[in-house]
Amino acid sequence: MALPRDLVRDDVVLSAKTWVVKVGTSVLTGDDGRLDPARIGHLAEQISSVMDTGRKVALVSSGAVGAGIGQLGLPRRPDNLRQVQAAAAVGQAYLIRAYDEGLKRHNRHAAQLLLTHEDFDSRSRYLNMRNTLTALFEYDAVPIINENDTISVDEIKFGDNDRLAAMVTNLLRAPLMVILSVVDGLYRSDPGPSGIGEVVPLVANLDDQTLALAGSSRSAGGTGGMQSKLGAARLVTRAGGSVIIASGKKPEPLTRILAGEPVGTLFLAHGRTHGARKRWIGLTARPRGHFVVDAGARKALETGTKSLLAIGIVNVVGDFDKGDVVGIVDGDGNEFARGLTNFATTEARQIQGLRSDQARQALGAILDDEVVHKDNLVLIL
Q: Which CATH class is domain 7-278?
């Protein structure tokens, strides 16, 4: 007997022509922490099935460290950072080969992209990355994306591949991100040692109350937990995309999602649908500094029709140049917007709190009245 169709899921999934799939280390490895080639092959088969429907799929995959552990014959995951990075360097080659072999069975190619935060911070590198991904889709190849573990300390310590997947989703303006983990989705309460609990099927608005359901657990083989996944989901849903968190260890998760089955937890898009440029400003590039503004400035900026003027700035934090991304923070330290600054740090400090005519006089030149123009400003709350 066929399961009843979920019309909300149908609308989200069937309309999504580009998917970003993130798979965690614990999904790809066995109990011994080593990469399981059979699971890689199974995942490649599912990805190919999704692509057979005319969809594009980019895969953000962890697992390099697990693959390296197996190739080096290590008894367990190393505790020493440099040894973990060495295992990642060895394992990445084996990981991409396993994906390529799995995809070749379905007449497709794997393409490796190793990225760092700097690739997203630089506007030119960001655009080059998007152009490369677009070209790979034209060749019907599958981009296999990973953070460059061998040089990126943050990824190994904090499991940033969840965030990386969100950033890739926003880069591509993909309407759907699927995170495959070892849990069935977001639980209403801690499932405890049994790992069995009631899954929340649908989250319409990923608010603070929903974030509180995440707890603090982490998977055994990976470095991220539900908090990391919900943080990634929030980045995507704010930008107008939807997210599904589901178990990658259950049979056929991607093809079941495509079929409209109630798999995992679906987080609906609820933010403004930003263009690619504003997604980069507001949700991707890391701020080089911050403007602290008064209550009047925050109220004006939150209309979405006003620029940030010098008179509303009460403090300038950080070291940045003209054209850098900066955060905009209220007096309580809450960041509520980001934008491209028209002034470097030294100039901004000279004019903070001044009227526009006073600012021009202080700098002795005819410059922009706006410290951050409304066209280069993105609200992030």
A: alpha beta
